[in-house]
Design brief:
Length: 61
């Protein structure tokens, strides 16, 4: 499955907004275990690649 391109500035906005903490389980991002910017509503379901449809999520999800 291909991941839609998310601009660096948008990734930074989302990660800063989340204070580098997973927005689902509140697990802080640590060295070697990075969170990623994720679509809340996936693109294939019509979700937009915009700040209000993006969240910061850890790899456990
Ligand atoms: Zn998490």
């Amino acid at each position: 499955m291909s991941h839609p391109y998310i601009k660096v500035e948008l990734r930074r906005l989302v990660s800063d907004r989340a204070a580098h903490i997973c927005e689902y389980c509140l697990y802080p991002e640590v060295e070697g275990l990075s969170c990623q910017v994720d679509h809340i509503i996936s693109v294939k379901h019509g979700g937009a690649t915009a700040a209000d449809n993006l969240c910061y999520a850890c790899i456990f999800l």
